[in-house]
Amino acid sequence: SDKLFKREQFGLPENAFVFVCFNNSYKITPQMFDIWMKILQSVNKSVLWLIETEEVVCRNLKLEALKRNIETSRIIFSKRMKLDEHLLRHDLGDLFLDTLPYNAHTTANDSLWAGLPVLTCLGNTFPGRVGASLLNSIGLADLVTFSLEDYKKKAVYFGNNPNEITKIKNRLVSIKNYNKYYLLDVELCKPDKLSK
């Protein structure tokens, strides 16, 4: 798709630092959400961009944000889209925040493929180590943390130093240009391509 998206189309503030998590909502544990709210508290003009799910889930997450003194307007939900458009909208985000104990899998691959850096925390089991595996495989081990405290600190650092995120995004572009298939090619893995 040649479509270009603007932040305003998704209710994202133009000058905000946009933290992203397009994981399924069942991966968002109370512990992870608590950390995310602390990150928002520490990064002025930041928002959290999530995938819209059941109404009760969206409502409960906003209520939990309020309990942590975060305005509900800083939690932004967007509907699911076709894959090509979904990948394009990643460009509007600044940093993908991975979940634990169950990491992003295909979602992390999509994010990196689309040029959005992923910050992860290494878990103790396979589902919690996928993000680290992807990042290590493309030379971005500096986005792997080993405790949730370090994960929070690094997210806050990037949120308050957006130029560092720009550098990482440029590294992602260079890596992709150097080796087109450095990650699972989302285009090649569409059902219509696999059946040929």
List the topology elements.
Layout: E1 17-21, H1 30-42, E2 46-51, H2 55-67, E3 75-78, H3 83-89, E4 95-97, H4 106-113, E5 118-121, H5 130-137, E6 144-145, H6 148-160, H7 162-178, H8 191-194
Parallel strand pairs: 1-2, 1-4, 2-3, 4-5, 5-6
Structure description:
α1 (30-42) links the parallel β1 (17-21) and β2. α1 (30-42) runs parallel beside α6. The protein is globular and about 45 Å long. The longest helix is centred in the last third of the chain and has 17 residues, at 162-178. Strands 3-2-1-4-5-6 form a six-stranded parallel β-sheet, with helices on both faces. It has helices spanning 30-42, 55-67, 83-89, 106-113, 130-137, 148-160, 162-178, 191-194; strands spanning 17-21, 46-51, 75-78, 95-97, 118-121, 144-145. It is an alpha/beta fold. Helix content is 42%, strand content 12%.
Structural key phrases:
196 residues; alpha/beta; six-stranded parallel beta sheet
Number of strands: 6
Structural class: alpha/beta
- Kindly report how far apart the N and C termini lie: 21 Å
Q: Could you tell me the mean pLDDT?
A: 90
Strand order of the largest sheet: 3-2-1-4-5-6
Basic shape: globular
Provide the β-strand percentage band.
5-15%
